[in-house]
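Example record

One chain of 95 residues, shown exactly as stored in the release files.
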Amino acid sequence: MKTFFPFLMIVMVVSLWGHDLSKIHGKIQFVDHFADYKVKVVTHRGDLRVQKVEHFPSKAGQWQIVDHFPNYKIQLVENFPDFTIEYVDHFPGVR
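Predicted structure tokens for this chain:
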């Protein structure tokens, strides 16, 4: 049991390695294939708190949903996501 906890922490760190969640903001397009990131929507304790905005998505977690010319392409999945998101009305950003 003593070796399980450090192993779990390493797995959690490696799973988010390379995903600087604070940079994922701007114009977002939801796609079914060839996504930049695969995400799962959760109701509590998401890795990134996302606020949908109509204009000027300038802070981490602020997403403007578009159909053309996105900054990032996101695929919504149920299994094996790159990270999880939680939709919020206020205070977006990395948890």
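Notes: Helices lie at 4-16.
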